[in-house]
Specification:
By secondary structure, the protein is an alpha+beta fold. It folds into two domains: about 15-200, no CATH class; about 210-290, no CATH class. The protein has helices spanning about 5-70, 80-90, 115-125, 160-165, 170-175, 200-250, 270-290; strands at about 100-105, 135-140, 145-155, 190-200. It has a four-stranded antiparallel β-sheet, with helices on both faces. Helix 1 (about 5-70) runs antiparallel to helix 2, helix 1 (about 5-70) packs antiparallel against helix 6 (about 200-250) and helix 6 (about 200-250) runs parallel beside helix 7 (about 270-290).
Protein backbone atom coordinates (compact mmCIF):
# COMPACT_ATOMS: atom_id res chain seq x y z
CA UNK A 1 0.00 0.00 0.00
CA UNK A 2 1.33 3.41 -0.99
CA UNK A 3 1.60 5.84 1.91
CA UNK A 4 1.73 9.53 1.21
CA UNK A 5 4.29 11.75 2.90
CA UNK A 6 1.51 13.54 4.77
CA UNK A 7 0.12 10.25 6.08
CA UNK A 8 3.57 9.13 7.21
CA UNK A 9 4.10 12.39 9.06
CA UNK A 10 0.70 12.03 10.74
CA UNK A 11 1.33 8.43 11.74
CA UNK A 12 4.65 9.36 13.34
CA UNK A 13 3.05 12.37 15.04
CA UNK A 14 0.17 10.30 16.44
CA UNK A 15 2.54 7.53 17.59
CA UNK A 16 4.76 10.01 19.42
CA UNK A 17 1.76 11.68 21.01
CA UNK A 18 0.27 8.31 21.99
CA UNK A 19 3.44 7.29 23.81
CA UNK A 20 3.62 10.72 25.44
CA UNK A 21 -0.03 10.47 26.46
CA UNK A 22 0.48 7.09 28.15
CA UNK A 23 3.59 8.26 29.99
CA UNK A 24 1.88 11.52 31.00
CA UNK A 25 -1.18 9.66 32.27
CA UNK A 26 0.97 7.29 34.32
CA UNK A 27 3.02 10.08 35.89
CA UNK A 28 0.03 12.36 36.40
CA UNK A 29 -2.01 9.62 38.06
CA UNK A 30 0.71 8.98 40.65
CA UNK A 31 1.28 12.68 41.31
CA UNK A 32 -2.42 13.56 41.44
CA UNK A 33 -3.25 10.68 43.78
CA UNK A 34 -0.43 11.70 46.10
CA UNK A 35 -1.65 15.29 46.00
CA UNK A 36 -5.31 14.29 46.55
CA UNK A 37 -4.31 12.00 49.44
CA UNK A 38 -2.36 14.79 51.11
CA UNK A 39 -5.26 17.20 50.55
CA UNK A 40 -7.65 14.71 52.19
CA UNK A 41 -5.27 14.28 55.13
CA UNK A 42 -5.05 18.05 55.45
CA UNK A 43 -8.85 18.23 55.64
CA UNK A 44 -8.69 15.54 58.34
CA UNK A 45 -6.12 17.61 60.25
CA UNK A 46 -8.44 20.62 60.10
CA UNK A 47 -11.23 18.51 61.60
CA UNK A 48 -8.78 17.30 64.23
CA UNK A 49 -7.87 20.88 65.12
CA UNK A 50 -11.57 21.72 65.31
CA UNK A 51 -12.04 18.91 67.80
CA UNK A 52 -9.03 20.13 69.78
CA UNK A 53 -10.48 23.65 69.86
CA UNK A 54 -13.78 22.28 71.20
CA UNK A 55 -11.89 20.36 73.90
CA UNK A 56 -9.90 23.42 74.94
CA UNK A 57 -12.95 25.69 75.02
CA UNK A 58 -14.87 23.20 77.13
CA UNK A 59 -12.11 22.59 79.66
CA UNK A 60 -11.09 26.24 79.97
CA UNK A 61 -14.45 28.02 79.91
CA UNK A 62 -17.36 25.63 80.40
CA UNK A 63 -16.00 23.35 83.11
CA UNK A 64 -15.41 26.19 85.62
CA UNK A 65 -18.99 27.40 85.07
CA UNK A 66 -20.50 23.94 85.45
CA UNK A 67 -18.38 22.84 88.39
CA UNK A 68 -20.89 23.95 91.06
CA UNK A 69 -23.63 21.90 89.36
CA UNK A 70 -21.54 18.72 89.18
CA UNK A 71 -22.03 17.99 92.86
CA UNK A 72 -25.74 17.45 92.25
CA UNK A 73 -25.85 15.95 88.76
CA UNK A 74 -23.44 14.87 86.09
CA UNK A 75 -23.36 16.98 82.93
CA UNK A 76 -21.63 15.19 80.02
CA UNK A 77 -21.43 18.54 78.21
CA UNK A 78 -18.69 19.48 80.70
CA UNK A 79 -16.44 16.64 79.46
CA UNK A 80 -14.02 17.87 76.76
CA UNK A 81 -14.10 14.58 74.81
CA UNK A 82 -17.91 14.59 74.82
CA UNK A 83 -17.99 18.20 73.57
CA UNK A 84 -15.50 17.46 70.81
CA UNK A 85 -17.37 14.34 69.67
CA UNK A 86 -20.73 16.14 69.61
CA UNK A 87 -19.32 19.11 67.73
CA UNK A 88 -17.71 16.90 65.09
CA UNK A 89 -20.94 14.87 64.79
CA UNK A 90 -22.74 18.05 63.78
CA UNK A 91 -19.92 19.04 61.45
CA UNK A 92 -20.27 15.67 59.69
CA UNK A 93 -23.60 16.84 58.25
CA UNK A 94 -21.44 18.97 55.93
CA UNK A 95 -18.64 16.44 55.55
CA UNK A 96 -20.33 13.03 55.83
CA UNK A 97 -17.35 11.14 54.41
CA UNK A 98 -15.26 11.95 57.50
CA UNK A 99 -15.68 10.11 60.82
CA UNK A 100 -14.32 11.21 64.21
CA UNK A 101 -13.85 9.25 67.38
CA UNK A 102 -11.98 9.72 70.63
CA UNK A 103 -11.03 6.08 71.04
CA UNK A 104 -10.04 5.30 74.64
CA UNK A 105 -8.64 2.13 76.15
CA UNK A 106 -10.51 2.52 79.46
CA UNK A 107 -13.26 5.10 78.87
CA UNK A 108 -15.95 6.36 81.21
CA UNK A 109 -18.48 6.53 78.37
CA UNK A 110 -18.82 3.10 76.66
CA UNK A 111 -19.23 4.70 73.23
CA UNK A 112 -15.59 5.84 73.39
CA UNK A 113 -14.17 2.35 73.94
CA UNK A 114 -11.45 1.56 71.41
CA UNK A 115 -11.97 -1.31 68.99
CA UNK A 116 -9.17 -3.78 68.29
CA UNK A 117 -7.63 -1.80 65.44
CA UNK A 118 -7.99 1.45 67.38
CA UNK A 119 -6.25 -0.15 70.36
CA UNK A 120 -3.37 -1.10 68.06
CA UNK A 121 -3.10 2.52 66.88
CA UNK A 122 -3.09 3.77 70.48
CA UNK A 123 -0.34 1.29 71.32
CA UNK A 124 1.76 2.58 68.41
CA UNK A 125 1.36 6.12 69.73
CA UNK A 126 2.36 4.97 73.21
CA UNK A 127 5.42 3.18 71.85
CA UNK A 128 6.59 6.32 70.03
CA UNK A 129 6.20 9.28 72.44
CA UNK A 130 7.90 11.63 69.97
CA UNK A 131 5.31 11.00 67.27
CA UNK A 132 2.72 13.76 66.88
CA UNK A 133 0.41 11.76 64.63
CA UNK A 134 0.00 8.37 63.01
CA UNK A 135 -1.31 7.85 59.46
CA UNK A 136 -2.44 4.53 58.08
CA UNK A 137 -4.97 2.55 56.05
CA UNK A 138 -7.22 -0.30 57.09
CA UNK A 139 -9.80 -2.60 55.54
CA UNK A 140 -13.49 -2.09 56.27
CA UNK A 141 -16.64 -3.86 55.03
CA UNK A 142 -17.23 -0.91 52.67
CA UNK A 143 -13.64 -0.83 51.40
CA UNK A 144 -10.26 0.53 52.48
CA UNK A 145 -10.20 3.57 54.76
CA UNK A 146 -7.54 6.20 55.37
CA UNK A 147 -7.11 7.50 58.90
CA UNK A 148 -5.04 9.91 60.94
CA UNK A 149 -4.60 9.60 64.72
CA UNK A 150 -3.20 11.78 67.51
CA UNK A 151 -2.54 10.69 71.06
CA UNK A 152 -4.79 11.72 73.94
CA UNK A 153 -2.29 12.33 76.72
CA UNK A 154 -3.15 13.29 80.30
CA UNK A 155 -1.17 16.50 80.71
CA UNK A 156 -3.66 18.27 82.99
CA UNK A 157 -3.88 17.05 86.57
CA UNK A 158 -7.48 18.28 86.73
CA UNK A 159 -8.52 15.29 84.63
CA UNK A 160 -7.46 12.93 87.42
CA UNK A 161 -10.17 14.36 89.68
CA UNK A 162 -12.64 12.20 87.73
CA UNK A 163 -10.36 9.42 86.50
CA UNK A 164 -7.90 8.52 89.27
CA UNK A 165 -10.04 6.40 91.63
CA UNK A 166 -13.79 5.86 91.99
CA UNK A 167 -13.69 7.36 95.48
CA UNK A 168 -12.36 10.66 94.11
CA UNK A 169 -14.89 10.86 91.26
CA UNK A 170 -18.11 12.90 91.50
CA UNK A 171 -21.02 10.84 92.80
CA UNK A 172 -23.35 11.82 89.91
CA UNK A 173 -20.79 10.50 87.41
CA UNK A 174 -20.54 7.20 89.30
CA UNK A 175 -24.32 6.97 89.33
CA UNK A 176 -24.44 7.38 85.57
CA UNK A 177 -21.48 5.25 84.43
CA UNK A 178 -20.60 3.08 87.43
CA UNK A 179 -17.25 2.58 89.21
CA UNK A 180 -15.77 0.00 86.83
CA UNK A 181 -14.63 2.10 83.86
CA UNK A 182 -12.61 5.23 83.28
CA UNK A 183 -10.31 5.03 86.33
CA UNK A 184 -6.65 4.34 87.02
CA UNK A 185 -5.41 7.02 84.61
CA UNK A 186 -1.92 8.42 85.27
CA UNK A 187 -0.48 11.85 84.58
CA UNK A 188 1.33 12.04 81.20
CA UNK A 189 -0.06 8.64 80.18
CA UNK A 190 -1.56 8.03 76.71
CA UNK A 191 -5.10 6.83 77.38
CA UNK A 192 -6.49 7.02 73.85
CA UNK A 193 -6.36 8.65 70.44
CA UNK A 194 -8.29 11.17 68.42
CA UNK A 195 -8.98 9.42 65.12
CA UNK A 196 -10.34 10.94 61.92
CA UNK A 197 -11.02 8.40 59.18
CA UNK A 198 -12.23 8.72 55.61
CA UNK A 199 -12.86 6.14 52.85
CA UNK A 200 -9.77 5.68 50.70
CA UNK A 201 -11.85 6.18 47.56
CA UNK A 202 -12.34 9.88 48.46
CA UNK A 203 -8.79 10.88 47.43
CA UNK A 204 -9.04 8.39 44.54
CA UNK A 205 -12.17 10.12 43.23
CA UNK A 206 -10.46 13.49 43.54
CA UNK A 207 -7.41 12.19 41.69
CA UNK A 208 -9.56 10.61 38.95
CA UNK A 209 -11.49 13.85 38.46
CA UNK A 210 -8.28 15.86 38.15
CA UNK A 211 -6.75 13.23 35.87
CA UNK A 212 -9.81 13.22 33.61
CA UNK A 213 -9.71 17.02 33.38
CA UNK A 214 -5.97 16.95 32.67
CA UNK A 215 -6.26 14.28 29.97
CA UNK A 216 -9.17 16.02 28.25
CA UNK A 217 -7.18 19.26 28.24
CA UNK A 218 -4.18 17.41 26.82
CA UNK A 219 -6.33 15.87 24.09
CA UNK A 220 -7.76 19.28 23.22
CA UNK A 221 -4.24 20.69 22.92
CA UNK A 222 -3.24 17.72 20.74
CA UNK A 223 -6.23 18.23 18.46
CA UNK A 224 -5.36 21.90 18.01
CA UNK A 225 -1.69 21.12 17.38
CA UNK A 226 -2.65 18.29 14.98
CA UNK A 227 -4.84 20.61 12.91
CA UNK A 228 -2.20 23.37 12.89
CA UNK A 229 0.48 20.82 11.99
CA UNK A 230 -1.50 19.50 9.02
CA UNK A 231 -2.33 22.99 7.77
CA UNK A 232 1.35 23.93 7.98
CA UNK A 233 2.42 20.63 6.40
CA UNK A 234 0.05 21.10 3.50
CA UNK A 235 0.95 24.75 2.90
CA UNK A 236 4.70 24.46 3.28
CA UNK A 237 5.52 20.93 2.15
CA UNK A 238 3.00 18.61 0.49
CA UNK A 239 1.29 21.20 -1.76
CA UNK A 240 4.64 22.45 -3.07
CA UNK A 241 6.06 18.95 -3.51
CA UNK A 242 2.90 17.88 -5.35
CA UNK A 243 3.26 20.86 -7.71
CA UNK A 244 6.95 20.10 -8.24
CA UNK A 245 6.14 16.43 -8.94
CA UNK A 246 3.52 17.41 -11.52
CA UNK A 247 6.03 19.66 -13.27
CA UNK A 248 8.64 16.91 -13.33
CA UNK A 249 6.06 14.58 -14.88
CA UNK A 250 5.29 17.19 -17.53
CA UNK A 251 8.99 17.47 -18.39
CA UNK A 252 9.35 13.69 -18.54
CA UNK A 253 6.39 13.53 -20.93
CA UNK A 254 7.96 16.00 -23.32
CA UNK A 255 6.10 19.11 -22.27
CA UNK A 256 8.91 21.29 -20.91
CA UNK A 257 7.34 24.48 -22.09
CA UNK A 258 4.52 24.20 -19.59
CA UNK A 259 6.86 23.42 -16.69
CA UNK A 260 7.01 26.53 -14.54
CA UNK A 261 7.43 26.65 -10.79
CA UNK A 262 7.65 29.80 -8.71
CA UNK A 263 10.33 29.18 -6.07
CA UNK A 264 10.09 31.52 -3.10
CA UNK A 265 12.13 31.50 0.07
CA UNK A 266 15.38 29.82 0.97
CA UNK A 267 14.18 26.54 2.46
CA UNK A 268 15.06 23.10 1.09
CA UNK A 269 12.00 22.85 -1.16
CA UNK A 270 12.70 26.28 -2.65
CA UNK A 271 16.29 25.24 -3.32
CA UNK A 272 15.01 22.04 -4.96
CA UNK A 273 12.64 24.09 -7.12
CA UNK A 274 15.47 26.40 -8.13
CA UNK A 275 17.63 23.40 -9.07
CA UNK A 276 14.72 21.97 -11.03
CA UNK A 277 14.32 25.31 -12.80
CA UNK A 278 17.97 25.36 -13.81
CA UNK A 279 17.70 21.75 -15.00
CA UNK A 280 14.61 22.68 -16.98
CA UNK A 281 16.40 25.57 -18.68
CA UNK A 282 19.43 23.39 -19.45
CA UNK A 283 17.21 20.66 -20.85
CA UNK A 284 15.30 23.11 -22.99
CA UNK A 285 18.57 24.56 -24.35
CA UNK A 286 19.93 21.08 -25.11
CA UNK A 287 16.73 20.14 -26.91
CA UNK A 288 16.89 23.35 -28.94
CA UNK A 289 20.48 22.69 -29.93
CA UNK A 290 19.61 19.17 -30.98
CA UNK A 291 16.77 20.51 -33.06
CA UNK A 292 19.11 22.84 -34.94
Amino acid sequence: MKLSLKLKFNLVFVAIFGVGLVVSAWLAQALLYRSAREETLQDARILMETAGAARSYTSEQLVPLMQPLMAERFLPQSVPSYAATENLARLRTRFPEFAYKEATLNPTNPRDRASDWEADVIQKLKDDPQSTEFIGERSTPSGPALYIARAIRINDGACLACHSTPSAAPAPMLARYGPDNGFGWQLHDVVGAQIVSVPADVPLERAHLLLRTFMLSLLAVFAAVFVAFNVMLHGLVTRRLTRLTDLANDVSLGKPGDATFEARGQDEISQLAQSFGRMHVSLASAMQMLGE
